[in-house]
Amino acid sequence: LTALGNVEFPLAIRGVAPAGRREKALHWLRLVGLEGFEHHYPSELSGGMQKRVSIVRTLIYEPAVVLLDEPFGALDAQTRMGLHHELLELWREKKSTMLFITHDLVEAITLSDQIVVMTRRPGRVKQIYQVPLARPRNVFEIYLEPGFEAAYAALWKHVKSEIGITGVAKD
User: Fold this and answer.
1) What's phi and psi for 59, nearest 5 deg?
2) Contacts of residue 52, Cβ cutoff 8 Å, sequence gap at least 6
3) What 8-state DSSP symbol labels residue 14?
4) What DSSP string describes 50-86?
5) CA proximity to 112, closest of 140, 84, 86
6) Closest CA to 14 of 63, 46, 61, 56
7) Which of 78, 85, 24 is CA-nearest to residue 46?
8) How do residues 21-70 score in pLDDT, each as one tens digit?
9) Contact 109, 155 (CB under 8 A)
10) Would you tell me the crossing angle of helices 47-59 and 3-13 to the nearest 10 degrees?
11) Is 89 exposed, middle or buried (0-12, 13-18, 19+ CB in 10 A)?
12) Residue 70 and residue 20 in contact, taking contact as beta carbons nearer than 8 Å
């Protein structure tokens, strides 16, 4: 399917009339900057564009809860930050609950209000951490946000003990 066909697909399954689903799909593609790429196939899109299609295909039918399992892991840093920004903008508009799985602490702090740190096998909840950063967040300069450094240090303390890192020298 094309980008447009992929985004329309969940609505087609739900029985939304063709004109209504086309209008809604075009709106969502515009929201994530894909206007002009509606008739391109996934193989004709960049990795970041493919991820945007995938995200809006999920969000278009406005689910109450969205599971995102490392959706940006294979992307370069600049594309990842751009998608973080777009995801936060979509969240601000729709307010869906998003369960986001990541191993990237900066990504977790940037996108989350609450972070659950898991233990190694067997996976159990080790720590639930409330992110103290205000919204909206500037994903492009998240390191400058008040509270970022403390949040990172608190999370890193729990994560490094789980992955067996000890004796890390301080600068």
Assistant:
1) -80, -20
2) 32, 33, 34, 83, 86
3) T
4) HHHHHHHHHHTT--SEEEEESTTTTS-HHHHHHHHHH
5) 84
6) 61
7) 78
8) 999 999 989 888 899 999 999 999 998 899 889 988 988 888 889 898 99
9) yes
10) 20
11) middle
12) no
Q: Which residues, in sequence order, are CB contacts of 27 under 8 Å at separation 6+?
A: none
Provide the token pair at 143: 């390191």
DSSP string, 128-159: EEE----SS--GGGGGGSTTHHHHHHHHHHHH
> Tokens 């399954």 map to which residue?
13
User: d(Cα 11, Cα 134) in Å, to the nearest integer?
Assistant: 34
pTM: 0.79
- For residue range 104-122, list pLDDT tens digits in order: 999 999 999 999 999 988 8
Dist CA 89 CA 33 (whole Å): 12
**Omega prior to 136 cis, within 30 of 0:** yes
Predicted local confidence at residue 169, as pLDDT: 54
Task: Give the torsion sign (CA, 1, 57, 69, 151).
Answer: positive
